[in-house]
Amino acid sequence: MLLDNGETFLIDRVKRKAFFEMNKAHFHPYYEIYYLISGTRRMFINHTLYTVDKGSLIMIGKSNPHRTTFITDDPHERVVVNFTDDFLQPLYQEIDKTSVVKCFEDTHIVIPVSRRAYIEELFMKMKYESDLRDDFSKLLIRSYFYELVVFLLRCQAFQNNHIEELDGASGKIQEMARYICENYDKQITLEDISKNAKMSTTYFSKKFKKITGFGFKEYLNNIRLREASHLLIESKHSITEIALKCGFTDSNYFGDVFKKMKGISPNQYRKNKGAI
Asked: For 113-125, b where at least 16 C-beta lie within 10 A, e where not — what string?
């Protein structure tokens, strides 16, 4: 739903059959809320693996790669809400901006059973108004959405983020994904990272792809391009300097990868201030 002032808000509720999984991992320049109404899913976000059960809510930060896959043969139903920074602006007038933004940085909240009917009703109201789209819908959507955000902030104040124990291979892949996120500016090879994981390159490649949805090189380039995109907008560094700061050894290769994934060159991206 495209709102006035260029603000974007989308809500989608879908039932999926057994064994459904996203074809590949993806990322986007806006926030996402993922709420599981029924079923069980495995989700990879940025560099962390989560098991998501009924009543679980995941908040995904901007430009963070993510993918959902099945871990049981059960069907599932989920709600997804996407929104931009602009949509959050009015909240910043009432609540500390840092707290609001932090709320949407890859957080897993298990909604208490006693409050699930309440939160699912908020989603239902937002979906209804999004489909209706009359003169009052925008105001009501904002009202319900802000109520949801305040509820989630309150949940975070009283509930620690969910942390789960992973099996050996999955835990090692998560560890290597985190290493890539923290060391993207260094020269990282498949051989070196496979060795660190104590796996053969072939096994590591297959396991990394299966768990994350990304090929190793694809994931590495995604993380590097995410950081490069920020620098293109927020700094005055040259294209070559940004390429080197983000781990690319060649600015031409950086330009090729950037255009392939973003659809425009780094220079065009900078001139358009990130608008694609």
From this structure: eeebeebbebbeb
**218 DSSP β-pair partners:** none
| Token digits of residue 101 | 């933004």
pLDDT-derived band at 4, boundaries 50, 70, 90: very low
**Residue-wise burial string across 211-243, b where 16 or more C-beta atoms lie within 10 A, e elsewhere:** bbbbebebbbbbbbbbbbbebbeeeeeebeebb
Residue 160 confidence (pLDDT): 54
Torsion angle defined by CA atoms of residues 66, 86, 1 and 9, in that order, rounded to the nearest 10 degrees: 40
Give dist(CA 145, CA 139) in Å, integer: 10
Please tell me the distance from the alpha carbon of residue 172 to that of residue 270, in angstroms, as a whole number.
36
What is the mean predicted confidence (pLDDT) over 55-73?
89
Q: d(Cα 17, Cα 2) in Å, to the nearest integer?
A: 29
Sheet of strand 40-45, all strands in order from the earlier edge strand to the far edge: 48-53, 40-45, 66-70
Chain center to CA of 64: 4
Identity (one letter) of the amino acid at 163?
I
Tell me which DSSP letter residue 93 carries: T
C-alpha angle 21/49/15, rounded to 5°?
30
Per-residue pLDDT tens digits for 45-57:
988 888 899 999 9
Out of 4-13, 89-98, 212-221, least confident range? 4-13
Closest CA to 258 of 269, 272, 245, 244: 269
